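Sequence in, structure out. Go.
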Amino acid sequence: MSPYDVGVEMMLDGAQVLRLGRDLVVNVAQENHTQGAEWLERHLGHQYRVHRVWRMADNHIDSMVLALKPGVFLARHDGIRDLMPEPLRSWKFVVPPEPDAGAFPVYDDYEDLVLTSPYIDLNVLSVDENTVLVNEECTGLAKLLEAEGFDVVPVRHRHRRLFGGGFHCFTLDTHRTGGFEDYLA
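Output:
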């Protein structure tokens, strides 16, 4: 038995959930996450629709798929569409170029401390329907988003793999103004 095994208890991180107005897409990779999704349904089911996706990632999905604006996702690969709930499969899926391995600092003595995948830079932040914060090291991603009509704001975030998070992770608790949208009605 692993010392990290917590047994079957509810476990859910905010970054396992993609919020789209009144819809929550919840990544369920194991029984612990199933219990977390059930908890969300019990406590938020009157206000939100909870959609489960199965094993899109080990845990967090914000380096797999993020909403850039209503109707447009940034997705790690084309196959993500097939993993999404049916009502979201009609949205546009923008797939960026593969990450540049040279864009990450090297930690010779601490390689076992790298907490994220090379896809951490897909973890962008949409400030509004036109503006996206992108790691300045990701010029290919920035060019792609500009070609899609977005205003890209490059931001320095050098040690994102070591600190285990990107712009979306850092801002999960951001409160946005506006109404409670229903993008799937």
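Check: The CA atoms of residues 22 and 92 lie 19 Å apart. The longest helix spans residues 31-44.
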